[in-house]
Amino acid sequence: MSTSTTASVSTHILDTSVGRPARGVSVQLSARGGRDADWQALGGSATDADGRCKDLPDLPEGTTHVRLDFAVEAYFAAKTADKQADAQQDAPANRDSGTGVFFPEVAITFAVVPGEHYHVPLLLNPFGYSVYRGS
To answer: What Cα–Cα distance (Å) separates residue 104 from each residue in 5, 75, 107, 120?
Structure first.
């Protein structure tokens, strides 16, 4: 059993529309120490070539809730620009969202307990997403 007084968090993103990691997505980490406490911004990172954030800030002691904010709009805008440059046809490119992405941001909030590690993968495509507690 762990004797740590804080929880730890990691994440990665898989772009399910292409079956590859999502590189260069900005991820911000916030925490609070109680359901009614204010959120404290802790900093952030960006996903690497493997879609992982390996350098998210540590959580402060007393953290009970964590929020990961993923800025996915810029990622999909870059993909759309690349796609147009390559003249490829990918199914959902011309839907009625106007920007090519329906969810410009994804915010995931979850509860934590001291001593536990929380890996929270984001499965992403331009018109939907899914998350789960990984290992």
So the answer is: 35, 9, 10, 19
CATH classification at residue 17: 2.60.40.180
Number of domains in the chain: 1
> Residue 71 and residue 121: Cα distance in Å, rounded?
15
- Report which of 76, 64, 77, 96 is spatially closest to residue 16, judged by C-alpha positions: 76
Tell me 57's DSSP state: P
- pLDDT of 37 > 70? The answer is yes
Q: Is residue 51 within 8 Å of residue 83, measured between CB atoms?
A: no
C-alpha to C-alpha distance for 134 and 53, rounded to whole angstroms: 14
Q: What is the pTM of this model?
A: 0.83
Amino acid at 9: V
Within a domain: 135: no
